[in-house]
Amino acid sequence: MNAILDNPIYHALTTNHLLFSKGDENIKYYHREVASFAGMKTYTEADFLKLCEQLPDNGVFIVFSPQTLTIPKPWKLAAEIDMFQFVYEHNFAPQQQLEITLEDLNKEHVEEMIALVELTKPGPFLSKTIDLSNYTGVFENGRLAAMAGHRFHLGNHIEVSAVCTHPDFLGKGYAYAVIKEQVKRILAKSQIPFLHVRQDNLGAVKLYEKLGFTIRTKMQAYVLTK
């Protein structure tokens, strides 16, 4: 399996997402309106300190690593999240459930998308996160019931992200449908789908396994603030 997935944020920002990146050769981070993620080439103390200089006082940076990181001062560790990194290993596009209608989401939907993310907490979603592309959703009675989209794009891997369903619409297969649509679109680009999920989100873990994803590695997310 491609080792660039061990450092997905850094490699996304030095390849396919160079357009969204700021920083230098050793530290990279997304434009603040797009995402709160940052990556480093080697995660040295010097690089942590250099990254800290780039953070607004009221902001956070989120870094991923399969190894335990020592977070130096003046950083404060706001949260540490145990995750699994899943990779899709089938070679066919799953068929869409015809009874569920999906709609492409655009900038007109951002306010409702942010509200859904704040309610369900799948991960950060900011005012220009939608620029990372391919967000699709399910609407019921005019309300956004579920959604998913693309996030990190590194090498030939594209991450499925922002998978969430409003609590009022659980149990209807909407999450299954939006993830299948993301997988289909990624495979149509001759790319490999992957994703991250909290280890304690057992329902999501089972769903991803049902859809053909397998665990590649454990991954830690570190939410850093000054």
TrEMBL record:
GO molecular function, one term: acyltransferase activity, transferring groups other than amino-acyl groups
Keyword set, alphabetical order: Transferase
Keyword Transferase attached: yes
Residue ranges of every copy of the N-acetyltransferase domain listed in the record: 100-226
Pfam families: FR47 (PF08445)
Protein name per UniProt: GNAT family N-acetyltransferase
Source organism per UniProt: Pedobacter cryophilus
